[in-house]
Design a protein that fits this description.
The structure holds two protein chains of two kinds. Chain A is of the alpha+beta class. Chain A has four helices and six strands; from the N terminus they run αβαβαββββα. In chain A, β3 and β4 form a beta hairpin. Chain B is an alpha+beta fold. The chains are: A alpha+beta, B alpha+beta. The interface between A and B is large, with 63 and 43 residues.
Amino acid sequence: MAKLEASDAVVFGISIDSPAANNAFAEKIGVTFPLLSDMNRKVLKEYGILKMYNVQKEEYDWAQRTTFVVDKSGVIQSVEEEASAINPNNAVAVCTKLPKK
Amino acid sequence: MLRKGLSIALALAALTVGFITTVAAQQNAKVSHTTLKAGDMAPDFTLLDNHWKQVHLSDYRGKKNVVLAFYVLAFTEG
């Protein structure tokens, strides 16, 4: 996190959870960055990362775990999906390489 | 005879539609990979943060780099 802040980046976590659930989650895991609620799955659809999960034979549409790095001009600099999106090192590396101002 | 032929044709049409719908649903289920890639503009959004405050991606344009970390569900390993 410190490395990301040093590289002039902000971080947002995004899921379909409600703001109340996200706030409780943020307190539990101690994150300092905002957690955003895409309750109507609008952003997930727009970013094309709605994934179907089968739980006890019922299907649910939730987010595919994905990390995007967006630079200051609004251009996507990197996309990481699934397992590789767990480790933030690449996102940090991408941010660090971006011009400071 | 004609009527029988017609009902068979209708049944086949219904099956075809059903099959196409099923295939479409299955393909839909697999479409979880984003079509966005490096170099594309990030679609703008407005979402509520965990304090019910609106966050617009466009507010950070020209100011900050933004890391968007989409996760499956709160309180899970996802």
